[in-house]
Amino acid sequence: MSNFNRKMKMFQQKKQYHRINPAAKGQQKLMFGLKQSFFFYVFLKFFEKIHFKHQKYLVLAQIMRKFKLKFFLVLFSLVLGKLSFAQSSIGTAPKDKVEILGAQNFEYLKTGDRNVSKLIGNVKLKQQQTYMYCDSALIYETENLVEAFSNVRINHNDSVTITGNYLLYNGNTKTAFINGQAKMVDKSMTLSTEQLDYDLTNQYGYYTQGGKIISKENTLTSMLGYYYARKNEFFFKNDVVLTNPEYTMNSDTLLYNTLTKTAFFFGSTKMVSKKDQILCENGWYNTQTDQSQFSKNAIIFTDKKMLQADSMYYDRKNQLGKAFRRIHVYDSIQKVHLYGNAGISNGKTKITYVNGNSAAIKILDQGDSLFLYADTLLVSEKLKKQKQLMKAYHKVRVVKKDFQAICDSLVYEQSDSIMRMFHGPVMWSGVNQIFSDTIFFYITNGKLDSFNLLSDAMIISKERGEHFNQIKGRDMSGTLDSNQLKEIFVSGNGQNIFYAKEDSLNYIGVNVIDCSNMHFRFIKGQMDKAAFITAPDATLYPLDELKPDQLRLKGFKWLESKRPQRVQIQP
Question: Residue 252: what pLDDT?
Fold first, then answer.
């Protein structure tokens, strides 16, 4: 090798050494400046000791002595400047450049206008509080870019660690693209994906090819995901699945906070647990407190029951549910539907309240149904040995085929199959209107079988015009056949007004009877036979002999206008 080639090789090696080690270059400049200053100082001392005989040399010596002090000030400043530069070079590189902290092998390449440093083996890089490790790397100095290969690891602020097979890092924007088995770990979770983009300044990352997140109690997967570390929030889209020991959630879109443990979901969502299944299109769920809120086509299926409403609040731990607007509850065991505008259900007490234009439907045998309307409904489910209890309050209406009733409050106990009606109860069976202070209905095999009328009982049926058949007594009991009167027993203070007919068109007169105890039989709701048991006092009057008020028993009231009809169930 020629001497020229050896010098060029040494120069290139020296240039490469200074490029990756600016501290050495600074030290060299400092030594060069000190050498120049030393020779100038010796030159001044030499002039001071010479005895100049010639006038021009004396003038030169005086000038040099005059500026001696200024020279040393300039020299001192120069040395400090060189020293400061050297210390800066020895300390840290400029903050916006990626530093090389170590590598087993180094090679400097120049391709066109690009200066590239090639590092191989145990590579360690740094930029401010971000450290990067890999098996090999390329550093593009002009662009401030880093390509890292194999066993890539990034540690940022000792709070976030990212690993993968490949890294493209932009030192200017402090953004990283990790490809191949990318994994990010922070204090609250671990994210695994095939490709990950991460902004180290804003602590923001995302993936677009599917990812999996594991925290203490939850595992989440999705096709698209965004992570905001400063807010501790994840945003997921497409095929989102959130799983924990209590339930599994499938959703289209989900926002999750790792600190509050709250998930907000949008679009078609399904939650399944051992105890229930929930469907909705909007809502939130706290995985820590087990509290949730659902809206837009929200439905809960639990223990053979269904709850549907516009919006719902549910506390799984306390088994407390609240529903609002267009409520529908269905019990598949009891075959009961509940409707209303607001409701509360307590799983521990097994009590459900529904109010606001409430309605209940009891599905009976042979496809028949009993409709119950009220301002407020209360349903107490089966608890231990007790059976279902239903209560209705205010403006109660009962509608069944060939049978209707109204009252202000109603209680139905499945244990004794008795429906109790209070506060002005009235019922209609075919052409007959029946009322008293209190009415008890007995249901057998899903059918209205019999009833008791307690205190001031009265039965009225309309004949023609203003003519009414009437039965009155202190108490009454009766039976039904296909929802129509079959028999009536009057107990105490019995009275009867009955229009006697010669045929279907002509009346004979009107019977007015007083008898303490009476018995009546009906065929298809029409009176067929009567038995007056205890000393009856009976008189048959011509129709024109009695005044209108004499044709009405005390307490008479015709309430046909209040007879309820089946209405639209959905509130």
Answer: 92
Percent of residues, the chain, with pLDDT higher than 70 = 80
- Listing DSSP states for 295-346 in one string gives EEEEEEEETTEEEEEEEEEEETTTTEEEEEEEEEEEETTTTEEEEEEEEEEE
Check pLDDT > 60 for residue 6: no
Q: What is the number of other CB atoms lying within 10 angstroms of the CB of residue 91?
A: 10
Instruction: Write out the DSSP string of 145-178.
Output: EEEEEEEEEEEETTTEEEEEEEEEEETTTTEEEE
Residue range 94-208, CATH number: 2.60.450.10
Q: The tokens 């407020």 sit on which residue?
A: 376
Q: How confident is the model at residue 17 (pLDDT cuts 50, 70, 90)?
A: very low
Q: Spell out the domain ranges in the chain.
A: 3-91, 94-208, 210-280, 449-562
Residue 335 has a CB neighbour count (10 Å cut-off) of 14
Q: How is 22-81 classified by DSSP, letter by letter? A: HHHHHHHHHHHHHHHHHHHHHHHHHHHHS---SHHHHHHHHHHHHTHHHHHHHHHHHHHH
> Quick check: pTM over 0.70?
no
Distance CA 561, CA 566 (A): 14
- Name the more confident of 75 and 158: 158
Whether 460 contacts 558, CB under 8 Å: yes
Question: Which pair of tokens denotes residue 517?
Answer: 């105890």
CB atoms within 10 A of CB 248: 13
Q: What are the tens digits of pLDDT across the range 312-335?
A: 998 888 888 888 988 888 888 777
Residue 444: both structure tokens together? 């057998």
Nearest to 569 by CA among 399, 373, 385, 299: 373
